[in-house]
Fold:
Amino acid sequence: MRMRMKMLLLLFCCGVVFCDQNHSDPRVQRVFPVISINYDYVQMPFEVSLWILLASLMKLGFHLIPRLSGIVPESCLLIVVGLLVGGLIRVLGEKPPVLDSQLFFLCLLPPIILDAGYFLPIQPFSENAGTILMFAVVGTLWNAFFMGVVLYGVCRLDGGGLASVDLLSCLLFGSIVSAVDPVAVLAVFEEIHINELLHILVFGESLLNDAVTVVLYHLFEEFAHVGEVSAVDVFLGVVCFFVVSLGGIMVGGVYGVLAAFTSRFTSHTRVIEPLFVFLYSYMAYLSAEVFHLSGIMALIACGVVMRPYVEANISHKSYTTIKYFLKMWSSVSETLIFIFLGVSTVAGPHAWNWTFVTITIVLCLLSRVLGVIGLTYIINKYRMVKLSGKDQFIVAYGGLRGAIAFSLAFLLSGDDFAMKDMFLTAIITVIFFTVFVQGMTIRPLVDLLAVKKKKQSKTSINEEIHTQFLELLLTGIEDVCGHYGHHHWRDKLNRFNKRYIKRCLIAGERSQEPQLISFYNKMELEQAMMLLESNSSASLIAASTVPQQRSRRTLNISKEREEEIRKILRANLQKTQQRLRSYSRHTLMPDAEEDDWSETRLRKQRVEMERRMSHFLTVPANRSESPAMRRGRFESDSQVHTVRPRVLVSVPVPLPDDPEEADGSTQSRNGGAQKPDGLQDSRGRKQSVKFALDVEEQKLPRCLSDPGPNNLLEEEELFYQKD
Amino acid sequence: MGSTNSTLLKIPNVEELMQETGFSSVHIIRLYDRFKALDKEGRGHLCPHDFGAIKELAMNPIGDRIIGAFFSPGQETVDFNTFVKILAHFRPVDKDRPRDPNSPEPINSRSNKLKFAFQLYDQDKDGKISRDELLKVLRDMLGMQVTEEQLESIADRTIQEADLDRDDAISFEEFRKVSAKILHLKKAPVVMSAEYDC
Structure:
């Protein structure tokens, strides 16, 4: 990408002295250059960054204009921007950069595929795997051959400029153009929110047809190079297909297992956890590409295999990091790809041939529709949930072509294929057609046909439990029938997974944790965070009230609720921290932050109690002595911190010579505790239980075995017990 | 396996059975063969012991409940007709069935499927899943891997989510509401292929 953007620099630096680095002749007297330009030094990274910045700004811009982004899908807008930029560059007299295939395949495509593969919804994918494979393999083959043969026929008939196009070239062209493109599909389908089934069908197909495309592409390219085809070659081609796809999956699987295994040991270096995920996946992709295996399938396999284990091992923050980095990179890649498509269109070279181009577009649509209808007819015989006409239409209409086709065509060597330019032009036209026309119209069509949309449902523990229950039920029924169906095999796989694989790949106790529990933990955590963000303590109290019959249960507040309560209290109490800092520290050793906070809270409690004490005492409480009293109390506390006192009334009061005060303190503590404190409603209840000497309820529940702030909770418990 | 007709003749009321359950004759024959295979002592009916002999079912956490579902309360045996009727719950729903409001709902309607599942939860058959029943189910499903408190908090949370009339139990209507989305995605086993463990 050699782009001269000198004029931009000149705009910024006026009146500079141009310094040529090579002329460093010390004997020549010259003025010391205060400011100098050295663009060559930074040219490459500068240009790359500038492009990415431009792409991101464009993306920003679109979403600021809601009406536009509602009608036109983002991909179209980006291509238009690309066209404009390309035009601008051409007007300036420079040659616009073309989408370099190596750059595309090695840098721009992997993030998108990894993002798709890592977050692939496994359940619907595996349930529809047969259908997806049929569409991907058989459908693509049909498309390629149908298009190739008919195009050849048309070229023969047409004569003129097209007579030189031979069968092999047509077939190659057919194979390039027939593949549904994952980038384009993702870009468009993400905005229309159709139901999960259709989404996974089209998207899965676009991912899996890579193997077919790779094989056909290399096959025909090889044949064209050699010049003749024999039966053996065809047979080898078929074998090659299996090698490419299965090999790709295996490579991906191996790297996935490696990544999972590595993540087992990362508990001490949490910061680089995401890096492992990315690196292993990228290595899988590159390794597959070395052997001409399907890099996309390797990437998907790697992501799918490693995800359950890695997620069990890594911290929550790493998980968020991975998610956001992947989304960010894939978003940038996608934007860049579309912009470059636009720029490359302007760059040319073009060889426009009306017949060829129009026939191509017509054939694309025709072969896709025929293929989908034919395949669905066969597939519906084996499917439980049949694909209706509407579904078929969406699947056919959603077969968008994109940048992969363009890059593959670009990679063709000009020697073997004289018609390369014509091919490129035709492919670009097809891409434009599918992205613009089909991309823009698919949304109104979806609404018009009333296709089922994605249900916005939040996860619910009920659903999870009942789903698992039904799974077990159906497996059981299958066993009764003696039928080795879907559920039977899945059950076997799960069992195998649990017994052997999870033991190796998941660190520590988490390997034994059932799925339901991790789901529940995740859900509670999400809810806790949500409550924090909305910061409404009122709703918190409301949410945690439970009917009176279960009064025993009310004290078993879940750990996450405690966390919420604690955090809200902290937010409110931190203001008082400054004031109280002058008091001494106690000798216990919890986490510094927790220390401050709980200390503060306890102090506040004690201040409260002191105040109440003063009501009961005949001798007015000596306020000035309070620091000393507190200090004393803390010291004595530290002695008992390992013991869980049952009867808390007899907390040693450091002023032993006033028995009345001791009694009063007992009474007041009871009285004080029974009055619910505004801030500490649930906690207050807990306190009252303690004072009432109710022994049973003292155990703080450890509901969820989240290997996180366990120690903290421990310290907290000890603290409270001392009151 | 004998010819179709002769096997069909052996089964009493086979026409009525097919009518009621919606199974085709092929399916009925396969189920009959399976029934015979399970009924090792050739008594013509099954007892819980025969079900228990199925290896995979024994490993299933809710295997006992499933077995229990086959036997009506008080009965110790299940004959072929009952066997088929219960399995009919799991036939895929017929979308093109004519909607005749007067005829009784077919056994494999979504509502009946949910009722069946509900009955597996509700062991004391009082029409509600109480907290204790839910706890039992969770204990069965999760086994020894979780602590009692975890189970209790999950049970609390579950009831809290589903319980709309605040009676601290899940009635069938509430169950139906939360399960509405699930059954749509789940595929029932199709008793079509001939893979048998005889």
